[in-house]
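To: structure subgroup
Subject: Chain for Friday's discussion

All,

I'm putting the inputs and outputs inline so they're searchable in the archive.
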Amino acid sequence: MFSKVVIICDGKFPRTEYPHYLIRTADYIICCDGALKKFLRNSLSIFGEERLPDLVIGDMDTLPASMQKKYADIILKETEQEHNDQTKAVRWALNNLKGIETIHILGATGGRADHTIGNTSLLMEYTRMFDLKDITIEMVSDDGTIFPINDTIEFECGPGRSISIFTPDNSLRIRSEGLMYPTDDVVFDNWWKATLNKTVQDNVRLELSHRSIALIMLD
């Protein structure tokens, strides 16, 4: 059983304790392509000893041939270009690991802005591409946590946290409880429309007018 899975992308490797804790306590660790180099540089400080991830997946365009040969036993090369390495890792985990409860994606932000935007937006697509019933998928960085929703949700986060909501669906309306600035009348016709909000209660409830896709970002 692999209830807690961590996927490490080739963006900014996290430096703070919480994402390191997620790596340290994961049941299965997947590195995307060139992220193997960053994982190896940080494994000693995270685990107290040098160790390898369980799997390295991707088209191997950013992993030197020498490392591909050295770590061939844990490398799965997937050359199809319809999906990026992050998506390949999520797909492989869901298809091959039993008992998944959480998938934490690390290192998906930082570096190139287009990679950051693309990777975060893919979280919404995963709610349509895969059966995520009873599975929590989150993107975690030193700056906070991002997770997708596709229906009305209530979650515990505590007061005083920064929160932003994004959706590509300009027909969606979101009635909110527990936020400093209610989102009931927001028209989501641009990315900034529900950003820079604050939580004011232990629980936040977001009631969607219809099933759709959206991203929640918490500091």
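Points worth raising on Friday:
The chain is about 25% helix and 30% strand.
The radius of gyration is 18 Å.

D.
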